[in-house]
Amino acid sequence: MRLALLGSPVTHSLSPVMHRAALEQAGIDGTYAAMDVDVDGFTAAVGELRRGEMHGANVTMPHKRLAFELCDVRSPESEQAGAVNTLAGIGGEVVGSNTDVPGIASAWHQAGLPEQGPVNVFGSGGAAAAALVALAGRDIWVFARRPDRAVAMIERAGVEATVCDWDHPPRAGVLVNATPIGMRGEHFAAATLESATGLFDMAYGAQETPAVAAIRSRGLPVAVGLDMLVAQAALSFRIWTGVTVDPDLMREAATTELAARRSGEKAM
User: Fold this and answer.
1) Nearest CA-CA partner of 9 in 151, 200, 250, 183
2) Dihedral, CA of residue 199, residue 204, residue 209 and residue 214, to nearest 10
3) What is the DSSP string of 112-131?
């Protein structure tokens, strides 16, 4: 079985170690590679899925919308989000799913984030769209550098939400970071963090993001990118293989890899 992660950049991703651990536990002879691809490379990979040369793929930034457009069959969640993060080659067709949506819901609940109250979503890409679908029915404000993209995203999702300019002061509520901010130590504005009543940070790297550190220091609930990553990865693996793996196995593989990366950075 040939599996892959498609996106750019992908060198930071923990998906390969998680899925390789799952393949080993399930006793499945297979590979999982991280492939840094542009639009042409992504389109070529979808062709491989359609021809049966590749069996499944996860999709990350910036190709979740492109994945939606290129697949032949889409799940209801991906139709609503307008984004696909999991592809499977089945019978000559490419089937698109969005495991981010249930992954967000699962990680949100496990972290003890408020089940009611306002939410401030930062971003307008595929991850932000998945957050809108997962949090539908809440009082949602969307902050985007390109408000037109946010408006289009909300219309596709069919979710009620208010679009705000990126620099608009947020009101008190859970901050959902659906951007890369924090992956390389970038900071949110102080006022943005001060208004947060909790944090769902989809960004992750070898080190804890500044936003996570700041919100945790105030004793508020936090869901980190790894929580979502593990939840959606287990669902993706089941789509490809029909096998349900223990999410804790994937989490252990990811945390071991993160520890190794942190040690490497300290040694440098």
Assistant:
1) 183
2) 20
3) T--SSS-EEEE--SHHHHHH
- Evaluate whether 170 touches 120 at the Cβ level (below 8 Å): yes
Could you confirm whether 64 is annotated as catalytic? yes
Neighbours of 69 (CB within 10 A): 12
Task: Match 């019978």 to its residue by tokens.
Answer: 91
Residue type present at position 228: M
Reported as a single tens digit per residue, the pLDDT across 201-251 is 998 777 789 999 999 999 999 999 889 999 999 999 999 999 999 999 999
Name which of 27, 67, 37, 61 is nearest 49 in CA terms: 67
Contact indicator for 55, 1 with CB cutoff of 8 Å: yes
Domains and CATH numbers, the chain: 2-98+229-261 (3.40.50.10860), 101-226 (3.40.50.720)
Q: What are phi and psi of 248, to 5 degrees?
A: -65, -30
Edge-to-edge strands of the sheet including 140-144?
162-165, 140-144, 119-122, 173-177, 196-201, 222-223
- pLDDT per position as a tens digit, 69-119: 999 999 999 999 889 999 999 999 999 999 999 999 999 999 999 999 999
265: pLDDT confidence band, cut at 50, 70 and 90? low
| Contact by Cβ (8 Å): 197, 225 | no
Assign 51 to helix, strand or coil: helix
State the catalytic residue, choosing from 64, 74, 138, 251. 64
142 in Cβ contact with 161 (< 8 Å): yes
How far is 185 from 180, CA to CA, in rounded Å?
10
Please, which residues have CB within 8 angstroms of residue 217's CB and are 6 or more apart in sequence?
none
